[in-house]
Amino acid sequence: MSYAVVTLKKGEGRTLKAGGAWVFDNEIESITGGFTNGSIVLVHDFDGYPMGRGFINQNSKIRVRMMTRDVHQEINEAFLRMRVKNAWEYRKTTVDTSSCRLIFGEADFLPGLTVDKYEDVLVVECLALGMEAFKETIVKLLKEVLAEDGVIIRGVFERSDANERKKEGLPKVKGWIGEPYKTEVEIVENGVHYLVDVENGQKTGFFLDQKYNRLAMQRICKGKRVLDCFTHMGTFALNAGIAGATEVTGLDISDYAVSQATENAKRNGLEDRVIFRCANVFDELPRLAEAGEKYDVVILDPPAFTKSRQATKNAIKGYREINIKGLKLVKDGGYLATCSCSHFMTQELLAKTVREAARSAHKRLRQVEFRTQSPDHPILWAADESYYLKFFIFQVVDEK
C-alpha cells in the first residue's frame, strides 16, 4: 500500500523530535500523494528523513497525530493489540485497576482516544477523526485482553459528546457500543463507595485523575472540620468523612451534583457528618467569612478556568480570587488543598498565583506536598497536553 507523504518545513517539528505526538498545520511544507481525512500518512523531515506514521485531518490545526515512530509499521489489528496490551500491563503495575483510565490518548500512543473502566463497564471518548476507524476494534481488543486476566466487561458506553469533536469535523456521539446495559455502576475508590452514572455524569462519569490526591487528603482531614469547594460528586468530602473528619461541608453550584453527592454520603453511612449544599462558591466563601466561619481544612478543586492559551490571563484572576477567599477561611495552622486541571495553568503559574493570593490574604504558606494526576493518566514528556493536573497541599499560618 502506498501512503501520502507529509514533509515538514526546515526547522519545524521540534515537539515531534523531542517525543511529542502532534504535527501542526503551520509546520508542514508539502503533502504528496493521495489521501482522505483520517487516513494514515508518512511523516518526513524537510530532508526526507522518515519520522513515523500517523493519521491526517485537514479539518484540524493538529494536522497529523502520530501512531508510531516506525515508518515501516503497519497500523493493523496486531499493532493495536500491542498498544492495548501495553496500556493494560502498565495499569496493573502502577494503580488499583478496579476503576481506572485504561487508555489516555497520546500518552498511551493512541491519540485522541480515552477509555475509562468502572468496575465491569467501559466508557469511550474519541476526539480525533483518524481514531474513529480504530475505535471499535480497540474496544474489542480491550475486552479480550482484560478477559485474559479474568476481567469480564459487561458493557461499553460511548461519551464522544465533547465540543472538541467539532474541530475535527465530527458529530457528537453518545450511546452504547454493542448491547445496552444499565448505565449506573457502583465503584469503590479509597474505601469510598460511589454510584457513577456513565450516561449523564460529567466527562465519562467520574473524575478518576484525583484518586491518590483524595487519598492523600484522608491523612490531613482526620479529626478536622473540612470545607470542600466545587465538590461535584462529593469525592474529597467523602474521603474526608471516611477518614474521620468531625464535620464536612461540600459546596457545588449544580443541583444534580449535590443530589448525587448526598446519595453517595448515604451510601457510605456518612450523611450525619458530610453535608452538601448548592451554592456558587465565589459568592458563598465571602458570606462564610463574614459569618466568622473557620475550617481546619479547605479544599479548592475548581473546574478548568481556561481551555485555551488566550484565556489564561482571565483564568489567573479566577484562581487568585478563589484562593484568596479560601485562605481567609482556614484557621491558623490549618490546611489548604488547591489545584488546577487546566493544561495551560502550568505548575509555575499556579504556584505564582497562589503565592500572590496568600500575600493578599495576609497568610504564610508551608508546602506539605505537590502532586499531579494519578499514574493511570501518565504524563508523556514532550507531549505537554498530557500534563494538566497540579495539586498543592499547604499548611496556612497567619502573619504574626
List the helices and strands and how they pair.
Layout: E1 5-8, H1 14-17, E2 22-24, E3 28-32, E4 40-44, E5 50-56, E6 62-68, H2 77-94, E7 99-104, E8 113-118, E9 121-126, H3 129-147, E10 155-160, H4 164-167, E11 173-176, E12 184-189, E13 192-197, H5 211-221, E14 225-229, H6 235-242, E15 247-252, H7 255-267, E16 274-278, H8 281-290, E17 295-300, H9 312-327, E18 330-340, H10 347-360, E19 363-371, E20 390-398
Parallel strand pairs: 1-4, 9-10, 14-15, 14-17, 15-16, 17-18
Antiparallel strand pairs: 1-3, 2-6, 4-5, 5-6, 7-8, 8-9, 10-11, 12-13, 18-20, 19-20
Topology-level CATH name of the largest domain: Rossmann fold
Distance between the termini: 73 Å
Order of helices and strands: EHEEEEEHEEEHEHEEEHEHEHEHEHEHEE
Number of helices: 10
CATH superfamily membership of the largest domain: Vaccinia Virus protein VP39
* Largest sheet descriptor: 7 strands, mixed
